[in-house]
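To fix ideas, we reproduce below a protein record of this kind.
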Amino acid sequence: MALKWTMRLTQAGLLLGGVYVAVVLIDPARGTIDANERVKEVVQAVAAGQIDKPLELASSEIADIRPTSMAERLRVSGDLEPINRAVLHAKDGGRIVEVRAVAGQAVKAGDVLVRFETDDLRSILRQREGDRDVAMAEMLLAMQSLNRIEQLAVKNIASQEQLDKARSEVTATTARLKSLSAQADIARTGLRDAEILAPFDGVISKRAIDPGSRVAAGAELFTLVDTSVLEAKVLVSTRDVPRIAIGQRAELHIDGLDGQTVFGRVDRIGPIADPGTRFIPVYIRLSDNDARLRGGMFATGSILVRQNEDAIVIPAISLRRDETGDYVLKLKRGRLVRQPVTVGSGWGGKDSVEISRGLAYGDTIVTVPLPRLKPDVAVTIPKAG
């Protein structure tokens, strides 16, 4: 464009020089004063002609407004963790007689993992059940005795004292039966707890016991994890957490999977920031059940925090400002017009801006900040080819 203006000024200079010579040669008697006045008239005429001539804009200096898909992502990183994880403990102390699982072994819900010695437990259960049966017989006998005394009392043969005593005996034997039944249930539960079962399908990640060892009540036995459903625990700064919401889509790359993308969604957001780092844990539920995924794998990726499929985005350099506000130069019927705009959210950092009001799909705007380009200037665009 600069070259075209230089050529135009050169042509104007040559034209003026020619006019001056023509004036002097045609009418030398009029003198140089009249000639200079004539040159001024010609200069004004040439200048006016140049202003009216449209400026030529290159295709790279304009842009057509079209719907643009824009997305803003927040970079995150963290480790994969199983959602279901259980540390199995011994409910009662005892000697371990059998261990049926090792670290790395897959198990099903209900599988027996450990068996404790049960001889003493079975003896206790038999004793408790025997005591319960005796108490039940005593209660039945007391109830029969109460029934007979009540019949005699109706005929005024049995005294009130005998009736009260029979009723008290039924109450006492009933309470003793309930107590011994509870003890039998406890013994039965102890015998059942002598077998440690897998609470869900998973993989043994740690085994802390060996056959023949004796453990105390509450001792750690196994750690079981469910690798079929994993989540990524990523750390987000307190500055960025307000942009995170439940359900936002995430794309992660897992170390060791050769660049494969794993998708997920934000499932939970931690309520408290770490006092040392000022970061808050965010948990991303993975939708991919790839058997190659393991807890502890490192993941990097992003969370989609904002997206607009039909945004109007212009280069930041095309935005102009004057005393009345922001505007752009829009092409309309071969001339530039001042088009006021309202700037929306920023996309792509400092290189582009979103326009929320003032432009429509199909508009054409100037994208170069040349000072010669002003409202009401005529312009032309060369056709391709």
Q: What stands out?
A: The first strand starts at residue 55 and ends at 56.
